[in-house]
Write a structure and sequence with these properties.
The protein is mainly α. The chain has 28 helices and two strands. Helix 9 runs antiparallel to helix 10, helix 22 packs antiparallel against helix 23 and helix 25 runs antiparallel to helix 26. It starts with a helix and ends with a helix.
Length: 526
């Protein structure tokens, strides 16, 4: 009777909660064994409930094949119930069937069977077409399986039902981001941040894209909004990571390091932060060559030791990961010992390229390793070999994943051309960088240097000015170069303003007061 089945359900649920799975299973199987194919609607409903609880019991016991059998049986009976229902009752029964299909999909997800997971979610949608949660789960399954077109299509279907659905917008933005459709991705990340200013995933992507677009003020605004939206955001690892990359892009390495340090223990943001910290410690000035001068060798060794300590925190999970191996080799090179640089070079070369099957030509496998090897060649005074290797990345398609390493490869090659007085080739490479990254401080700085070499003072001023703007007028070296070229271009008032800005932050900065500011003042008086 209905009363008996209700009591049985309560007893089975209690046994399940107590962890008495064997007894729970016996209580549930007893009525099922007595009537495998019920025709009474009431009994059919009860059997569906029993099978759903049995699936949970078998899951706890690790009997995954039985979980599948339970859920499939529950679905089979539920489909029969739908066939015998009509009107609003049928709609309700279809929704229940949709939930069962979603559970089947979740089971396949746990077993990493993407195709069956997707099929189960699609079946769930057939029974309940307007359930946004199921559409989102299907979109996520497509995304995880790398079926981006189908994921985008599903996101569009969700947006048609709920145009402001954050998860769908974010998924669509992530796909555009991965496919280098930067403008479209930025619009969508912007839309997410309008509704959720402290969605740190969207914020971190938006900051990167804002810098690439040269619209740094937009990144500033979004960081302020996140802070206003959540007053204690400074405690959030995601917020600190976002601030870290923002400061890194502007060349404020000390501040960036502080922000990353606050995020490095976090499960979601920790690994990214540690890799950023390693790169910052190994190249605090963000030099194109990536190694500091000989007089800083003591500090360099200390930084390398600190970087190794941070990287070691990731060892358990990443000892065979290519990114981990790359950073480990970067640390080896940063010690400055010739034997270590040679060993690092050999490692970089092993990671950098691979032979194509069709012919004996080598293709670039790891852009970061190419950059590391090229820097090692230059450090070991083997610049022609560096040049030859860097030319190989000229055919590598640009992607956000490789962007920073690829752009640094182009700039290193441009620097080599500059030192060989091949200004046209160098300029072409710098323009290539600026096309992809409109706020590249190093690109503007190198372009300024090329014009300075040719005594084209105004052109040099224009490029150094851009570098000065994007470093937030905080880098004294760039400030000095800008002031020097302003003096040469007879822009004396502007020269004095820049000198004062540098001296306000660095009162003892060498030469700038006597050689530039005082000369500019003398020129004005005469």
């Amino acid at each position: 009777s209905g009363r008996d089945s209700n009591m049985r359900s309560k007893l089975a649920n209690l046994l399940y909660k107590m962890g008495n799975y064997d007894k729970c299973e016996r209580v549930l199987m007893d009525p099922i064994d007595k009537d495998k194919n019920p025709n009474d609607l009431g009994v059919m409903h009860t059997h569906v409930q029993y099978y759903m609880l049995l699936a949970k019991v078998h899951h706890e016991k690790g009997q995954f094949e039985k979980v599948n059998e339970d859920l499939q049986e529950a679905k089979r009976i539920q489909v029969k119930i739908i066939a015998r229902s009509d009107g609003s009752v049928a709609l309700l029964m279809k929704k229940e069937c949709s939930k069962i299909c979603c559970q089947i999909a979740e089971m396949y997800h746990l077993r990493r069977d993407a195709n069956r997971e997707i099929d189960a979610f699609k079946e769930a949608i057939n029974y309940n077409e307007t359930d946004i949660k199921t559409h989102l789960a299907l979109a996520q399954a497509y995304l995880t399986a790398g079926r981006h077109e189908l994921c985008s299509k599903e996101c569009l279907a969700i947006s048609a039902m709920d145009k402001n659905n954050i998860e769908a917008i974010l998924m669509a933005a992530d796909i555009m981001y991965s496919k280098n459709q930067l403008t479209d991705a930025m619009v969508r990340f912007d839309k997410v941040l309008d509704q959720l200013p402290s969605n740190y995933h969207a914020l971190s992507c938006f900051i990167e894209l804002s810098w690439r677009e040269g619209s740094v003020q937009n990144a500033d605004m979004r960081i302020r909004n996140a802070n206003m939206h959540k007053p204690k955001s400074f405690l959030d690892a995601g917020f600190n990571y976002c601030n870290g990359i923002h400061e890194w892009y502007s060349g404020n390495m000390a501040m960036a390091l502080q922000f990353f340090n606050r995020a490095k223990k976090d499960l979601e943001w920790g690994e990214k932060s540690i890799y950023c910290m390693v790169e910052l410690l190994l190249n605090p000035e963000n030099d194109i060559l990536g190694v500091t001068s000989d007089e800083n060798n003591g500090e360099e060794t200390t930084n390398a030791a600190q970087a190794a300590k941070y990287l070691n925190e990731l060892r358990a999970d990443n000892s065979i990961d290519s990114k981990y191996a790359l950073h480990e080799t970067m640390i080896m090179m940063a010690t400055g010992e010739k034997s270590k640089i040679q060993e690092a070079l050999d490692r970089f070369l092993a990671m950098a390229t691979e032979k194509e099957n069709t012919n004996s030509q080598e293709k670039v496998k790891n852009v970061g390793a190419v950059l590391g090897a090229a820097r090692a060649f230059v450090t070991l005074k083997q610049t022609p070999k560096a040049k030859q290797l860097l030319k190989k990345v000229m055919e590598t398609p640009w992607s956000l994943a490789d962007a920073e390493n690829l752009e640094m490869c182009w700039l290193l090659l441009a620097e080599i051309y500059t030192n060989q007085n091949k200004a046209d080739q160098a300029k072409a490479l710098i323009l290539k960088v600026l096309h992809m990254n409109k706020s590249s401080i190093k690109a503007f700085e190198l372009m300024g240097f090329i014009f300075e070499k040719d005594s084209k003072w105004l052109d040099a001023v224009n490029n150094y000015t851009q570098a000065w703007i994007y470093c937030r007028q905080r880098n004294p070296t760039i400030g000095y170069k800008l002031a020097y070229n302003m003096l040469k271009a007879k822009k004396n008032f502007d020269c004095i303003v820049v000198c004062q800005k540098v001296l306000t932050q660095y009162p003892n900065y060498p030469k700038i007061r006597k050689e530039l500011m005082e000369k500019a003042r003398m020129s004005i008086r005469t």
